[in-house]
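tool_call: predict_structure(chain=1)
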Amino acid sequence: MSMSDKDDLGIEAPDGGASDELGDEPVAEPGAEPLTFLVSGEETGERLDAFLAARIEGTSRTTIKRYVEDGDVLVGGVAAKPSYKLRAGEQIEVEIPAPPPVDLTPENIPLDIIHEDEELVVVNKPAGMVTHPAAGVRAGTLANALAFHFQHLSRHAGAFRPGIVHRLDRDTSGLIVVAKNAQAHEFLSEQFRARTIFKSYVALAHGSAERDSGRIEQAIGRDPRHRTRMAVRREGGREALSLWRVRRRFERFTLLDVEIKTGRTHQIRVHLAHIKHPVVGDATYGGGRDRNLPDNTLRDRIAALGRHFLHAERLSFKHPLSGETLSFNAPLPVELQEFLDSLEI
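tool_result:
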């Protein structure tokens, strides 16, 4: 396994790791409107965010900054910082995400509630469920279900994201914390920003890990060649750190515990694919490894999963009111456990 030479870090104690607010969710926005600008000689030296704010009507500089930081803005095909000083002749590409829905329709969708108190809820999200509505997805989301089951949730992140503090990919199952009020939301969000929330995932990766633990420290940004994907970036990406430890070894796969110190979009999937050990069942970053397995029965079993083998198993944070450290664990979903069991046959 090709990784950093630093192998002294593995999964840390429950109060040691974290992921960023609103991380781990697909960035593709169907219907996004592409814009292109060419920097003139007179505009040389302008800040990127100020340049765009003056040219995109109805969009604040704060919003522009978020577009830049999320990788929706490329300068010469490369992501840049909001403070980047422009040069004459540079081409700027901007993808403006489609606006979210105005109204959120409550839906009676069953929820697996792990914990609930006056301040927050911890939910075990199933694979196949989007966290909240976005372009092209208006119903069947976790947010729709939360709106039905709870009368009072934080609107800190907007009406269509009731209580949503962080996210998981559609096909990633596992633990999500939801805030019931603005104070709890901000308290939890600050823990994400400070990276004091612990999040650990279970991932089944292709191939055999050479060592029993290690770290992947590679910046992640939007893939300039495939705009619906993320990629490890030498320039313009955002720092990302994943710590991994082998839980179990199989003939063709390695079961890993992966703690994320940052919460970049698709972080675990991108990092594991980068070191040539993509997540089993990952059609986006798998590089065809599922299809190239020599065992037809095994290929069929992976296809039957209908998801990638990634599960947010452990979550730990300080309670907004009491300050007590709460820790939660969600066992592997039945379909993932049955797949592991089938590897022993």
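agent: Confidence is low (pLDDT under 50) at residues 1-32. Proceeding to next step.
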